[in-house]
Each structure stands twice: as C-alpha cells, then as structure tokens.
Amino acid sequence: MWACGNEAATHDHEGEAHEAHANHEEGEEGAENAAAGDGKHFGKEINSDGAITYAALLSKMEGQESVEVKVEGLVDAVCQTKGCWMNIAGGEGQENLFVQFEDYGFFMPKDIAGRKVVMEGKAYREVTTVEELKHFAEDEGKSAKEIAAITEPLEELKFMATGVLLLDEEGK
C-alpha cells in the first residue's frame, strides 16, 4: 500500500493542506520525470547482477522477519507528491511490495509506473496504521470515498531500498 512517514507539521498538495511527511517538503531533487531511454541510478549505485524475482522474494521471506536482498520488479505506483515511495506490482494473488528509500536520501520520478526496476535493500513485514493508510491514499490521489473505506490496519510486505536502478524502456 502506501507510507511515507508523517510528521506533525502541515503542508500543501495542489491546494489542499494536510499533515507533512518526513523530508516531504516542496522541491523535486531526485524526482524529475524520467525520459525514455533512461538507465538511471537512485541512491547507492547498483547493478542487476544477482537480482531475484518478486515471487522468489516471497519464498525467501517465509519464516523470516527480514531479508537483505536485490529484487527486480515492475513499478505499479509512485508517490505523486514527491516520489518518496513506490509500489512494486505483485503477481496474480500476491500483494504489492511497498518501497521506501533509506533516510529519504533519494526519490523516484513520478512517471515511472509500468517501468522495471532493480532495488537493493531490506525486505520486511510491518503493520501500517489506518491513519497512515488514509494519509498516503490521499497522496496517491485516491477519492474521498476510497479513503473513507480504509478502516483496518494492514500488515504488508515493505522494502527499504538503499539503491534503485531504473532500467531502460527496453528493459520494461
């Protein structure tokens, strides 16, 4: 799902004020729109050597609280405010993988849904509160009705990336 980490301050997204996220102020450093043909590094420079599939990650997580790993996946959604999180599409019947970036040290382009990435970091399970889920549904541009329908916390698979490689369009 979503999560940016929210703080007590308030800021504005396209005319609507709401609670701020850690390091989620105005500005676009590292979150420029991606152009066709990119093979860009974000955060720690990595390559695709040894990357496992999302399905392999799920198997590797069985019985584990966390795993240090390099994973390849398809971007399903990106925070449209700053690019401070992204979802990697799960396969049929699988949950999406929620990805944040270590120490908010880098952000992803907001227009990369459908693109393939390789990420290195730590996969782990964590419960996301209803308040956080609603807040980040708002960041994703969900409707008021969709946001109001969020009534339960969610245990989800998350990933803290130290580096992301956005593959060229051909690597999609």
Structure description:
This protein has three helices and eight strands. By secondary structure, the protein is mainly beta. The strands form two sheets. It has a five-stranded mixed barrel. It has a two-stranded antiparallel sheet with strand order 1-2. The radius of gyration is 16 Å and the shape is globular. The two termini are 22 Å apart.
Mean pLDDT: 81
Helix percent band: 10-25%
The structural domain count equals: 1
Strand count: 8
CATH class: Mainly Beta
Beta-strand content estimate: 35-45%
Give the C-alpha Rg. 16 Å
Shape: globular
H/E series, N to C? EEEHEEEEHHE
* Tally of helical runs: 3
Largest sheet: 5 strands, mixed, barrel
SSE order and pairing:
Blueprint: E1 6-13, E2 16-21, E3 40-43, H1 54-61, E4 66-78, E5 85-88, E6 97-101, E7 116-128, H2 130-139, H3 144-148, E8 154-166
Parallel strand pairs: 6-8
Antiparallel strand pairs: 1-2, 3-8, 4-5, 4-7, 5-6, 7-8
